[in-house]
Design brief:
four-stranded antiparallel sheet; 0% helix; single chain; seven-stranded mixed sheet; mainly beta
């Protein structure tokens, strides 16, 4: 079982920045592939970014490429999402996802609200 707790969301103006954190417990963090997803009101949950076990490979949705950076600190069991140059369309609940190796199910955090005001 993996527990994920997101933090760092809030209200920010257009062009501002936020850093989200996701703290994991219950399993050796370095065995988990990690990702961030988001869900805006009335829309389906969508992929934002992901990072591999070592942090050496990252992937981004086209809509956030160049503005968001995903990173991880394995000794701290935490994955981050640095969000810069925020836009109103970035407003959503942001979820952390953990993927264990093999056929184990994925795990999700409870989400953190990000609101970008114009």
């Amino acid at each position: 079982q993996v527990q994920l707790v997101e933090s760092g969301g809030g209200l920010v103006q257009v062009g501002g920045s936020l850093r989200l954190s996701c703290a994991a417990s219950g399993r050796t963090f370095s065995t988990l592939s990690m990702g961030w997803f988001r869900q805006a009101p009335g829309k389906e949950r969508e992929f934002v970014a992901s990072i591999n076990l070592s942090g050496g490979s990252t992937y981004y949705a086209n809509s956030v490429k160049g503005r968001f950076t995903i990173s991880r600190d394995n000794p701290k069991n935490t994955v981050y999402l640095q969000m810069n140059t925020l836009k109103p369309e970035d407003t959503a609940v942001y979820y952390c996802k953990a993927d264990p190796p093999g056929i184990s199910p994925s795990y999700w955090g409870q989400g953190t609200q990000v609101t970008v005001s114009s």
